[in-house]
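agent> call fold_tool(seq_1)
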Amino acid sequence: MPVMDLDDWPGRELTDEELDAAYNVRAKAGEELFARHMARYRELSDAAVDRLPGHPGIVYDEPSGERLDVWGAPEGGGARPVFVFLHGGYWRALSRSDSAFMARPLHENGVATVVPDYTLAPGATLEEIVRQVRASIAWVHRHGRRYGLDPDRVVVGGSSAGGHLTAMTMLDGWQAPGLPDDAVKAAMPFSGLFDIRPLTRVYVNEWLGLDVPRAAALSPELAPSGRRCPAVVAVAEHDGGGFLEQSRRFARHWGGTAELMIVPDRDHFDVVLDLADPDSAPFRALLGLVRGIE
């Protein structure tokens, strides 16, 4: 296998200003629209979990003390397939309380939702954040049944930074002893980042503090993976240029088990909110992944 040139990444010829434009989706949206989107995350999440059966605030990772919420699991026995949603916010913002907007329609379709928090940067390195979200998947496998979750039917998804974290759970080699190689049966990253080397040259690195070798090691597109779980790689029609390019490239990289879904009339922030709408194409695609698990 040839030695990888870590500095040879798509877009490296762009200026810092051009890279910033490709990845600064908050600036592209504008502060007013961005604030409206963030308010909708919390409003839709609050409405989704109101009087929904659940188990909020469970510590899933003892070293960090981070917690997760379980929503929509059956109360009378049995175990449901589970969608684990990893929130975005460029690894430094948002929380599980902003990120349960899909819980009610999934519950109505027989699927439980798990929403973990993770320590936000710069309070944790990106390596530690990845470790934590993988620990949340391990928690579902080890403890999920007592909360009505079926560990043999786990689908992981997330938006933006959560899309990157989703892809990091899709890889081989991280599973702890006792965890199956196919702990994640299917995945749906939204507007994800799969080669994060470009971020070493944009404002995001103010809180990530990455160099190129660390960024390469944390880039799921560069990681070897023998097993390729089914995936829908979703991105908004009006997303940032960097996110559109990366989603297209990762879908090609993942191969025949991946479908690229470019969602029309959506931007970086509202595309994932389609998961709150059971009639939307992204929601139907998610259900298809869940129901396709053998």
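agent> call fold_tool(seq_2)
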Amino acid sequence: MQKLTRIITLSVALTVVSGCSYVGVYKRDIPQGNLVTQEMVSQLQPGMTQEQVVYVMGRPLLEAPFDASQWDYVFRVDKAYGGVEQRRVTLAFDPQGRLANIEQEGDLSQALPIDVDSNMGPATEGSNPMLMQPDESTQNVAPISTQPASQL
């Protein structure tokens, strides 16, 4: 009888403990692809060259492997406690490499549900990464000596 009581108590305790670990799971939004906004798409005009489009939109996420006349810009956010939001802009170019057609999917006018920290991530194109280094006075790191170890 005592053995049965211990087994049932242990089973209930393990069930309760394993169930508690699910409550504290942290999830976060996962953005993927090209950042696509309505402001970017509104700058596109038919007749623009591919270089001009790259300047406005950046390099496309997908280029058709057998036909370089179609570029796809896809942005997808997998929301932690919700659904998936997807935006897609497909650009078609004529044989001379000029923008001919713009197709949009998704609501580009909505604000993006991502937090952007200006201090994190890669440096922006054209900026000097050495000027973006943290100030030495804010770091608690001893300076590195340039003298050989034999002279120290």
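agent> summarizing second result for user.
The domain at 28-107 is CATH 3.30.1450 (Beta-lactamase Inhibitory Protein; Chain:B, domain 1). The chain is about 25% helix and 20% strand.
agent> awaiting next instruction.
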